[in-house]
């Protein structure tokens, strides 16, 4: 068998990364609604957001009876008032719509903790990936993420433990995502060690640890990394400045990569997973409607929903400013004119204790008051006696039923009583949104 055709076997419950254009693991941007959105527009696989092993350990697995999602939740460990503390969902997945498509990415610095966390999710995901490339302090400060590139012995031991104690028993693949090291020699040495641990895939982010997303990806080492992976029969996925499916397929062809991973372009418009022949980028309003629908269905935390909404809506649009001010799903649907989603939005607002944060009703009342003030300033209030009953909402006054005054004082008192019993005009019903 030649090196070109050598392939490590794909476990029965795992997935092959070859020929795939996939969604990158992104903290906050990689929650369930975002993944469903990427799958809707053609992503072949989705990496979930990096989830720390210690956060998963101690969680309880439950099936949400309202939507069928599997949720791993736990009580917060740092809550001041334990009695009022509520469980937090650490990880949520859709066992139907994500079946055969979901890779769980783990942040870890310990083989033992990695195995504990891996066993919790292994039966519900299609692969486990170890994050060895995140440069953020929350990851590196604990020896995780890109910090593992400096401790290759530890990284190797983590991968070997996951392969033996999680991958083989649960029949899923274990993979790793790394960044470039300072020199091609250092990168090649590391990759050569990693592909011998029993992993089925390796993703290379074509940037070094200090580099930021705005800096151009470095692809000069890519062919060497791909060849090193192929020599061991391991699939290699490329990442960095991949912005569309068409570009991904072209880069895979050019460099010989098995797959390509899209990150920031998917945050801006997830329809980047469609080819031009399939329609290319969809209008942002279509994408946002689908995203909000998924968020409501998944009962996604509203703060997380708004995080990606702020990226999906172009900043120059008035909807961007209005959506940024909303504090619940009903108000968000109102400003985006998603009237078809309003009933479900109100239900999930009640469920997530957001209904009391709605400002749409008070705004309608303020508008009605402002309109009345404008009419009064224009002199409209002085002609109230000539207003027909149909226009002001007050029934006809039967003047023949009013007793004739005996004295001037009685007439005055009667007028005061009549004025107090006439109800104020009610605002139109369509101005009030629950």
From TrEMBL:
Primary role: Catalyzes the synthesis of dihydrouridine, a modified base found in the D-loop of most tRNAs. Specifically modifies U47 in cytoplasmic tRNAs. Catalyzes the synthesis of dihydrouridine in some mRNAs, thereby affecting their translation.
GO molecular-function terms, A-Z: flavin adenine dinucleotide binding; tRNA dihydrouridine synthase activity
Signal peptide bounds: none
Spans annotated as Disordered: 375-434
PROSITE patterns registered for this protein in UniProt: UPF0034 (PS01136)
Sequence ranges assigned to domain DUS-like FMN-binding in this UniProt record: 24-275
Protein biosynthesis recorded as keyword: no
Cofactors: FMN
PANTHER family: TRNA-DIHYDROURIDINE(20) SYNTHASE [NAD(P)+]-LIKE (PTHR45936)
Name recorded for this polypeptide: DUS-like FMN-binding domain-containing protein
Biological process (GO), any one: mRNA processing
Reaction catalyzed: a 5,6-dihydrouridine in mRNA + NADP(+) = a uridine in mRNA + NADPH + H(+); a 5,6-dihydrouridine in mRNA + NAD(+) = a uridine in mRNA + NADH + H(+)
Species of the source: Aspergillus mulundensis
Family annotation (Pfam families): Dus
GO CC annotations, alphabetized: cytoplasm
UniProtKB keywords: Flavoprotein, FMN, mRNA processing, Oxidoreductase, tRNA processing
């Amino acid at each position: 068998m030649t090196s070109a055709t050598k392939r490590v076997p794909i476990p029965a419950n795992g997935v092959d990364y070859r020929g795939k254009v996939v969604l990158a693991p992104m903290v906050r941007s990689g929650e369930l609604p975002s993944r469903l959105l990427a799958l809707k527009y053609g992503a072949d696989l989705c990496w979930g957001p990096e989830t720390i092993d210690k956060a998963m350990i101690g969680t309880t697995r439950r099936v949400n009876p309202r939507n069928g999602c599997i949720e791993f939740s736990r009580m917060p460990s740092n809550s001041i008032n334990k009695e009022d503390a509520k469980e937090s969902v650490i990880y949520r997945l859709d066992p139907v719509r994500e079946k055969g498509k979901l890779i769980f990415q783990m942040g870890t610095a310990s083989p033992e903790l990695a195995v504990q966390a891996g066993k919790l999710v292994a039966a519900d995901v299609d692969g486990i990936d170890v994050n060895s490339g995140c440069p953020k302090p929350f990851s590196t400060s604990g020896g995780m993420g890109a910090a593992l590139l400096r401790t290759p012995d530890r990284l190797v031991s983590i991968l070997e433990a996951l392969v033996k104690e999680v991958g083989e028993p649960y029949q899923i693949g274990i993979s790793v995502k790394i960044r470039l090291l300072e020199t091609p020699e250092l990168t090649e040495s590391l990759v050569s060690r990693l592909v011998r641990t029993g992993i089925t895939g390796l993703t290379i982010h074509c940037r070094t640890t200090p580099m930021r997303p705005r800096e151009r990806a470095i692809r000069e080492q890519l062919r060497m990394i791909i060849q090193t992976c192929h020599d061991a029969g391991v699939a290699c996925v490329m990442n960095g400045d991949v912005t569309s499916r068409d570009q991904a397929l072209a880069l895979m062809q050019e460099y010989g990569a098995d797959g390509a991973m899209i990150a920031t372009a998917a945050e801006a418009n997830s329809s980047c997973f469609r080819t031009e022949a399939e329609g290319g980028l969809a209008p942002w309003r279509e994408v946002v409607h689908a995203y909000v629908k998924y968020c409501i269905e998944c009962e996604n935390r509203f703060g997380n929903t708004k995080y990606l909404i702020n990226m999906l809506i172009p900043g120059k649009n008035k909807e961007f400013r209005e959506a940024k001010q909303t504090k619940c799903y009903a108000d968000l649907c109102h400003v985006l004119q998603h009237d078809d989603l309003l009933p479900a939005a109100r239900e999930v607002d009640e469920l997530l204790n957001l209904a009391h944060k709605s400002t749409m009703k008070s705004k309608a009342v303020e508008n009605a008051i402002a309109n009345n003030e404008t009419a009064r300033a224009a002199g409209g209030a002085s002609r109230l006696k000539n207003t027909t009953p149909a226009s002001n909402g007050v029934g006809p006054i039967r003047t023949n039923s009013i007793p004739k005054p005996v004295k001037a004082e009685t007439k005055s008192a009667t007028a005061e009583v009549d004025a107090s019993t006439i109800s104020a005009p009610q605002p139109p019903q369509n101005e009030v949104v629950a």
